[in-house]
Amino acid sequence: MGSFVSIPGFSREQCCRLRGFESLEQGDVGSICSAIRDEEVVYMLVIWSILAFLISSLCWIAGDALIVGFRKPDRREHGEFIELMGDDAYAFYTRINEPRLRWGALVANYSIPLMLAGLYAHWVLLRGSAIGVAGAALLGIGFCLSPLAHATFYPLALASERAYIAYNSAGDGEEPDGAVLEHARRLYRFLVAAWFPAIGLTALGWILVCIALGSGTTAFPWWSLFLTPPFQALPWFALTRLPYPGKPLLDGALFNIINLVWAIAFLLLMVSHPVI
């Protein structure tokens, strides 16, 4: 029987795990070293993947702060306009800063490739669970749909400002320009049609990820599901309701704040629970 071949820096158990052998007496050192290198490459790709997800989450937080981080309209001031338009969404944009809105739309939109790159780390984590893989796929679809929904706030804001100007310009007994008002309403309907599928599919994807984590079929402990966005949503929603410097900039960034929390948690969990 051949003797055990050792590799500096690696235990017998590590080599057995890498190659799937019960013993290494006749193992191929070249194959083992190749497997070790492959594992190191995957580990680094996972790290870079989740870092990309983290950076994208920061970009989306900035985008949300710029495009929807406004105080709730005061109905005492805008009550008639809100009633005329049928929703208070238009009253958020009675006075706009166009460059702020433009960059709010673009910074999130341009970072979506990084968020999609972050799915690789999730696939490596969840590949042992069919439910988890399905969840990662739904996340990918939801992420792909999100830029359209987010960017639609930009034209809605421009149209809402025009609608408010038309409302204020109408004389006593005159009706505001109906075409201008209807244009804003159409954009709002488009926003709703774009936003709900994106957020719905993303939420469903995260729920499936939670099920996979809770079932113990991943490298992370079952309790890691409490660090995922669905479980983090409620406490962070409560925190954004409290006073903080710059309020209400982050009030509309809840979904991406909890994505950031999950990205940080993923990196920390990787220290004690490698996904490969």
Overview of this structure, please?
InterPro entries: DUF6796. The chain crosses the membrane at residues 45-68, 103-125, 131-154, 190-214, 252-271. Keywords: Membrane, Transmembrane, Transmembrane helix. The chain is an all-alpha fold. The protein has one domain (31-272). The chain is built from 11 helices and no strands. It is elongated and about 85 Å long. The chain starts with 11 loop residues before the first helix and ends with a helix. The model is unreliable at 1-7 and 18-24 (pLDDT under 50).
Number of H/I helices: 11
Terminal CA distance:
31 Å
- Compressed to H and E, one letter per element, the order equals HHHHHHHHHHH
Structural class: mainly alpha
Mean pLDDT across all residues, rounded? 89
Instruction: Let me know the number of strands.
Output: 0
Strand content: under 5%
Which residues sit in consecutive blocks of at least 5 with pLDDT less than 50? 1-7, 18-24
Q: Quick one: overall form?
A: elongated
The radius of gyration over CA amounts to 25 Å
InterPro entries: DUF6796
Transmembrane segments: 45-68, 103-125, 131-154, 190-214, 252-271
Keywords: Membrane, Transmembrane, Transmembrane helix
Pfam families: DUF6796 (PF20599)
What is the topology?
Layout: H1 12-19, H2 29-68, H3 75-85, H4 98-110, H5 112-117, H6 119-126, H7 130-151, H8 153-169, H9 178-214, H10 229-240, H11 254-272
Helix pairs in contact: 2-4, 2-6, 2-11, 4-7, 4-8, 6-7, 7-9, 8-9, 10-11
